[in-house]
Write a structure and sequence with these properties.
The protein has about 375 residues and is α/β, with parallel strands linked by helices. The chain contains 9 helices and 12 strands.
């Protein structure tokens, strides 16, 4: 057993150690009233996070009230033709004639922006919900097959460089009136993803930022070669996937290869195994601008598209370079917005071409 004198010495030594440790800690701690320079020096030793770049908004422009005089002033013609552009893979080196390179896509988007085109989704177009500033022209950007070159997220959670979505945003930053939206028609492996959580993340990111993700059948067959039951199965299985991804039901569908089922009505409405589908618009694969959705002859079950491509070979008169040039040379044939979503402004001479159910909205001049 230790003596009381020994215990006293041990306690004394321990107290000295505690005091020394406390003094060292106080010396290292920055004083509350330390000068600003000292605080900045301390702060600079801490890692800082770079702010994420902001993405251009997909919000629709504020509406105006269009009188006949105003519609005439902006040369509105909401019975004019609308280019619905069709894209497939976006590759640095094209592997097929329908592929486009990132530079080709960006060049075409910049051309559209410079000429006054404003993107809308296929759903907005097919249902007649066209909200484009007065004097501007709607264009529908559509991407088939849900390819990984259309959309992917980088390590920072932003659209991966040179994907279609990244290129759309880059043009929208340069041209503020170019609304960054498009439609992506997907199959069973959206954007090349197999993991369900990754599929959900990608698809919901797109829809939360104003893009449309819709139905391109389950396995991309030629629907004309299938039985009625198989056609319905192909469309319903993709509808069920969209529901699992949290974005269904789809309002539009693009026909694989542009091939219509032998029973045309099955492309728009039907059911299989207890699940139904009902599309507001079915889109073909080409090869000319679409009629206005307000036109008497507009067929929402067979909406025309234009393949994005140069003016060569079979594309000399059927692809985007030709048709965008043609619309520029024939401005009276092009859809020109009045900026008023509640009225359909047209020259008086076109009144007879309006769909009867739209007659009450006509603003003729």
């Amino acid at each position: 057993m230790r003596s009381s004198a020994s215990l006293t010495r041990i306690i004394g030594i321990a107290n000295i150690v505690v005091v020394v440790i406390a003094a060292v800690a106080l010396f290292l701690m920055p004083a509350a009233d330390a000068p600003e320079v000292g605080r900045q020096a301390v702060a600079q030793t801490q890692p800082t996070q770079q702010p994420q770049p902001t993405l251009p908004s997909a919000e629709q422009p504020p509406p105006v009230v269009a009188s006949p005089e105003f519609a005439k002033q902006v040369k509105a013609n909401e019975l004019g033709k609308v280019p619905v552009l069709m894209y497939h893979r976006i590759l640095k080196k094209r592997l097929a004639s329908i592929d486009r390179t990132p530079s080709q896509l960006r060049k075409e988007l910049e051309q559209l922006a410079k000429q006054g085109y404003v993107p809308i989704t296929a759903r907005e177009f097919a249902t007649g919900d066209i909200r484009v500033p007065a004097g501007k022209f709607p264009v529908v950007l559509t991407f088939d097959d849900g390819h990984q070159s259309h959309f992917a997220l980088d390590a920072d959670g932003m659209p991966k460089k040179d994907t279609a979505v990244d290129l759309i945003y880059r043009v929208a930053r340069e041209y503020p009136t170019f609304r960054p939206v498009a439609t992506f028609w997907i199959n069973k492996r959206p954007f090349g993803l197999d993991d369900r959580d990754e599929q959900v993340k990608a698809v919901q990111w797109l829809t939360q930022h104003g893009f449309e993700v819709a139905n391109h059948t389950w396995s991309h067959p030629d629907l004309r070669t299938l039985s009625k039951k198989k056609v319905r199965e192909q469309l319903v299985r993709l509808e069920r996937l969209l529901k699992k991804l949290g974005v269904g039901p789809a309002k539009t569908m693009a026909l694989p290869f542009g091939s219509m089922p032998r029973s045309k009505k099955l492309a728009r409405t039907g059911s299989w195994d207890g699940t139904s589908y009902d599309f507001g618009g079915v889109f073909l694969a080409g090869a000319e601008p679409s009629l206005s959705p307000y036109a008497k002859k507009f067929d929402r079950g067979a909406i025309q598209r234009i393949q994005s491509n140069g003016k060569k070979g079979e594309c000399r008169k059927w692809c985007s370079e030709y048709w965008l040039g043609w619309l520029n040379k024939h401005p009276g044939e092009r859809y020109v917005s009045d900026g008023d979503p509640l009225r359909i402004s047209i020259p008086q001479a076109l009144r007879g071409n309006i769909a009867p159910k739209r007659a009450s909205q006509v603003n003729a001049y």
